[in-house]
Structures are given as C-alpha cells and as structure tokens.
Amino acid sequence: MPASTRRLPLALPAVVAASWLLAACSPPVPPRPAAPPGPSNAQMVASIRAAGDKEQSVINVHPLADPGTATLSDAARGDEQAGRYADAAAKLDQALKLAPGAPELLQERAEAAIYLGDYATAERLARQSWSLGPKLGPLCVRNWQTVVELRRRAGDAAGAATARQQVAACHEAGVPRY
Question: What is the CATH number of domain 41-169?
C-alpha cells in the first residue's frame, strides 16, 4: 500500500479539528431582537368590548332579537367564558343561519374569530357588521375597534390609524341642554 493512502485517514481528523477551531474563533452571531409581543387574542377582544362599552353616543340602536338567536348568543357567551371558543363560534354560526344579516351577531362572531386566531374572518365579519349596522354608537365602535386591533396585529400602522378615525366617526354627540 502506498504511503499517501495510509496518511489520509490520519489527516482527516486533523482537518476536522482545525475547522472546529476556526469556527470557535469566529465572532458570535448577535441574536436577533425579539419582536415586541402583541396583545393576546383575549386582550384584543377585551379592548374591542371596552371601546364599545365606553361609547356614549346619543344614538344607540338595539334591534329586537329573535328568541332563537338570543338563546344561541347567550349560550355562545357561556362557551366563551368557559374557554370553548370553537363551540361559541359554532353557536354563533347557527344563529347567523337564522338571522344572516344581524349586525350584532356578525360582530360577536368576529370576536369569536379573534379568539380562534382567524383574523381575516374577524375583519371581514366586523366590516360586514358595520355595513349592515347603524354606523353610529357602540356597535359601530366595536366594528372599527376590531379593525384597529387587527391592523395593529398585522403591523399595518396606516390601516390602524384609518380605522381609529372611523372609531371617532361613530360618535354622535347630543344636543346640549341648558
């Protein structure tokens, strides 16, 4: 056997060891800064509902609810409080089959979609609720606050700012009384 082939197996470990040493001498790669954590799904829904609750518009539309849809909506709230978001969404879907154009149900379903992480559906439903709803008052605020939260989550500052302007447009001040 020639001498050159006998040295090859001995040289291979030396090459591997040298490459490890060179790798150990290279400067460390700095860690990427972590993206700031956004609000959780529950925090987004809480923010949406709080915005609607604090709206003190002179106009506040409360259409009469069908007893069947009201029962399903109440059951969905119970599921939501128990953390069964998919069950809540399913009940709201059933209610929407009974009353497909009900703006309040559409917004509730949008909020359920946020809990489930289905942000595209949530935004679509919130906009649909607004288009069918009163365009003033607490429901309008919840519709547009949903868009604000989802645009923020998507990193769309311009879209969030535009939606914030729509939130402000939902308020109708009363006539001052003296």
Answer: 1.25.40.10
